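Tokens for chain A. Residues wanted.
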């Protein structure tokens, strides 16, 4: 069956808010009934009854799905590039699911949550491998001034040590190609309208990269533009983090 995790999360969250009302309604289904109606109500009551463990499971499932929800919102924004979010969000989802998978393996899992998480992790890693085959998600991430190369230097996240070298080759090639056909300085870049971003919508990306703020390194006039960019000389503000195009329009080397 098709999975709609945003809809499922909304249903669970709504049920959690209405938990007292739901429990009370189920408890009184067979009240003041007799005969066939009472027997039918009892069968319905058994079917709809949610135990304490059932409610605890729904609460845990909600905590798992919330990152999928915020990640979907990050990748569905208008008027801003979203390819830069792909790899960080994939990695954040992998860590998130792996944590809950380990927890499920240590407990009695009557709802087979571990099986679902393992299946989800397997599919997620397939998509991540496909994303890493292409240069574009990698370039998109590195060209976000909040990450640059330092994010991929974290070996606890990215065991593939070739990523940083691959990034440098890609950046140098891109710089060479575009410097030969640089944009006319008289060209006016139209302003981009940025949708207001609520904390919930950007929380997934912020959480994915919060430990990898690029620190400014030494620079000199003789450095190439690529070196200046990677040095972190020009930091990224919160507003620019939400829309990296703003940073690039301001910080033209």
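Reply:
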């Amino acid at each position: 069956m098709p999975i709609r995790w945003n809809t499922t999360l909304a249903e669970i969250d709504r049920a959690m808010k209405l938990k007292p009302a739901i429990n009370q309604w189920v408890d009184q289904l067979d009240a003041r009934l007799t005969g066939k109606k009472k027997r039918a109500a009892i069968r319905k009551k058994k079917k709809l009854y949610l135990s304490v463990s059932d409610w605890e499971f729904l609460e845990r499932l909600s905590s798992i799905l919330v990152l999928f929800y915020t990640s979907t919102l990050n990748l569905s924004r208008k008027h801003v590039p979203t390819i830069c979010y792909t790899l960080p969000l994939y990695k954040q989802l992998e860590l998130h699911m792996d944590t809950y998978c380990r927890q499920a393996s240590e407990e009695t899992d009557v709802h087979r949550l571990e099986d679902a998480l393992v299946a989800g992790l397997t599919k997620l890693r397939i998509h991540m491998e496909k994303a890493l085959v292409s240069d574009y998600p990698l370039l998109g991430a590195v060209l976000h001034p909040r990450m640059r190369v330092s994010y991929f230097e974290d070996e606890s996240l990215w065991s593939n040590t070739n990523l940083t070298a691959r990034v440098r080759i890609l950046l140098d090639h891109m710089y060479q190609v575009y410097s030969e056909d640089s944009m006319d300085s008289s060209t006016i870049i139209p302003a981009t309208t940025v949708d207001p971003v609520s904390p919930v919508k950007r929380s997934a990306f912020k959480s994915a990269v919060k430990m990898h703020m690029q620190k400014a390194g030494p620079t000199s006039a003789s450095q190439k533009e690529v070196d200046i960019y990677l040095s972190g000389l020009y930091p990224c503000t919160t507003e620019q983090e939400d829309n990296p195009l703003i940073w690039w329009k301001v910080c033209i080397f």
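Confidence is low (pLDDT under 50) at residues 185-189. The first helix runs from residue 5 to 17.
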